[in-house]
Amino acid sequence: MSEESSRFATGSRRLGGAAAILAIAAAGAGTGFIVSGCGSDNSGNDVSNAIQSVQGGLSTAQGALSTAQQKANSISTQVQSVSSQVQSVQSQVSTAKSGGGYGY
Question: Which residues 6+ apart lie within 8 Å of 72 measured at CB?
């Protein structure tokens, strides 16, 4: 299980990285709006660039979320499989304890 946990942790780091990118993109958008308020001739371009930056950050975050969801689904499937195997072993142990599994 520790191996699965480390894989999930990697996805969490990617998600954190995407959040950081999104925060930087949002800060860039704020800068664009501040510049546009100052009467700069390039304010339209600055706002457009800031919007594109935010959209890029959102796209990256969406990709990271999708990857994290896929990993979570994979882990869930693996947990269900292990649970099924444990139940099977418990059933075999129970059968052996009642004398039906020794074959003597």
Answer: 8, 11
* Dihedral Cα 17, 23, 29, 33, nearest 10 deg: -160
Closest CA to 72 of 3, 4, 1, 2: 4
Angle 91-95-101 from CA coordinates, rounded to 5°:
125
Tokens 């304890």: give the residue: 97
pLDDT value at residue 44: 78
- pLDDT of 99 reads 75
Which tokens hold the place of 13? 């780091």
DSSP code at position 1: -
82 sits in which H/E element: helix 43-97
pLDDT digits (tens, 9 = 90+) for 23-71: 666 665 555 555 445 555 567 788 888 999 999 999 999 999 999 999 9
